[in-house]
Amino acid sequence: MRTEDVLAAIATGLWRWENASGTVTLDGEAARLLGLPEEPVTLTGAATRSRFHPIDWNEIDGIVHLAVAEKTLAEARLRVVDESGRVLRTVRVRTRPIITSPAEGERDYELIGTVQEVTEPRPGTTVERTSVTGDWRRSREAFLLDAGRALAEARSTTEVLRVAASLSMPGFSPDGLAVYGVSGERLTIIGHHGHSPEDSAPFEGMTVDTDYPAAEVVRTGRAIYLPTPEAYADRYPATWRYVERFGRRSWAFLPLIVAGRTLGTWMAAFKHRVAFSPDERSVLTTVARMLAQALARAGVAETERELSLGLQRTMMPTLGPEIPGMTVAARYVPTGGGLQVGGDWYDMIPLPGGTARSEGRRGGRFALVIGDVQGHDVRAAGLMGQLRIALRAYASEGHRPDAVLSRASRFLAGLQHYPGRDGGSVPGGGPRTDAGAAVMDEWYSVAGPRFATCLYLEVDPEKGTLDIARAGHPDPVIRTADGTAFIRQTEGGLPLGIEADSDYPTTRLVLGPGETLMLCTDGLIETGGHDLATGWTRLRPVLEQDSGESLEKLADALIQAVHGPTSHYTTGPLADRREDDIALLLLSRDLAPARLAGGVPRRTALTVAQAEPERIAGVRRQLRELLHDWADVEQIDSAELMVSEMITNVLVHTDGDALLVAEARGELGDRRLRVEVADTSDELPHRRRPGELASSGRGLVLMEVLADAWGVDPRGEGKSIWFELYECGGTEPGASS
Fold it and tell me: What domains sit in the chain, N to C, each tagged with a CATH number?
């Protein structure tokens, strides 16, 4: 049986294209597929070209020239058209060039190949069987879409290499992969698949001028295709001896190019023969481009992560030594985007003159600092580091909290001061140049000055006193020994850096046995679309749910409430969902071994100055929070009314400040509330009989009506007026027993 008969039986025709004469010879089957009578015929190049769609002919023209240059197989799909331009069928053309004029500078050749019809399904029909060519083009497009999506989602070099190793290319999947990078003048193996670790030893540290395909690709930026072992051995005899033992049959080495720069080489090795047709080369080239971009993105992401971790390790402190009678816990959670660094920080600073020895342990005064520099970028992190060092320096000099913050504000304002073009120098004190001025002008106009909120407190572990100075930062939160949590309002000033000279008044609190202090940045409160009010509502149950748990577990629970799996159930009312850094500090005073009768009291104390009568509203709010679980709501209203009256009397009738102490003691449902307001005046209050239109004089009358018990106690300097309320309804707690 003749070869022509076999080919005709499978609907495959033969053709010969002679470049020198410009003629094309077709057998009968090839003529039929091109819409001509089914008989051998010889056509001119122009006549043959008229039988194909012009777009397809332009495609094959480039493919043929590439095949001639590289002496490889040329393959393409072409649409056959009639005289009116209507598409008759689609054929697959496979040809191999034969050079007929080997002389230097001449390019005469012959193309000998086959023509075969491709079965294309009509729109709306179901393909019941695979077409002759396996519908390879559509499979390629689907593969490239999947590969592009998978590589785009890879976030590290390891993930990129894992995706590359799992790619299943349609019809010619490689079984061995290697990715080479460039370090100086040497190749480095970034990763490989299909080889054991010891297999890479001969290729480690290879210079870029080595006679090896990957090195040549790096030097030239052009792909190398080796379809046979003979082609490999002939072209690279020096390195063939290292490759022969792997038993591969074909190799492709493609450049990894990003932004015009060759980053390395991707090697795909095959155990079966691959002709590297134009379609196959197109797939490999596309994958190489996507792989290069994925590796570049992964490299940038890994650099950012390393920078982020380095900044965090450098700037975030560790907590100090064990403190007798107290426990400290801290957390820092960076924002989810960018470099994952920002301006939030915390610190623990031992203070001078506060070191004592007690049973071999270190104890004494120390300071806790928490703050937030505006922004979530590298500049914010840099300012945070400088500000943290300055605060440590000022605290170590022995300054009080108000002085520490005043100096820190002046430092931050001066650090960002830029005199503009009319000034004589730039930050750092160097001479001013036009080029430097232009750079600074642009930087200042875009970046602008930054401010920072901060809360600084000194702690005396023996007495439990806390001296707090606050610069625009959220107020601290106190959790009492019985598990009640409330915001403790303190005096405050402007954020650091806004004014060079700012005052920061100091507030003194006493942290009682079993009580816990929480300091945090606004990220803990506002993350998830919350404002300060709704964010506190979300955190309060977490603080109160188990007052006996360890401080470390409480810190984890607070972070989980904001970033945990269930945090999306507690989103805030705001439309935007803010992402912010979080810094958290917890300080707890150990509970005394011997509990007082009636349980641990719930207590708060604060001062209202003569110049700040507006703070009475804050006192009422804090008293209501202290009694948030009180059984009788009317008693809470009565307590607020009496406290307002008592403090107002001090501010109106004396020249001093009012000191309030409120304490609730006893078991739930059978508690006693005692509120004392002290002042430095020796004049005792007396009962008055105001008229109907009088605007004052009813304070003691209200006390008699609303309080279960009340009185006035003279002191050495001044007096104290007090009242008591009994939760059980007028009966003193414990009287029934």
Answer: 3-119 (3.30.450.20), 138-307 (3.30.450.40), 319-352+364-416+449-564+578-589 (3.60.40.10), 602-683+697-726 (3.30.565.10)
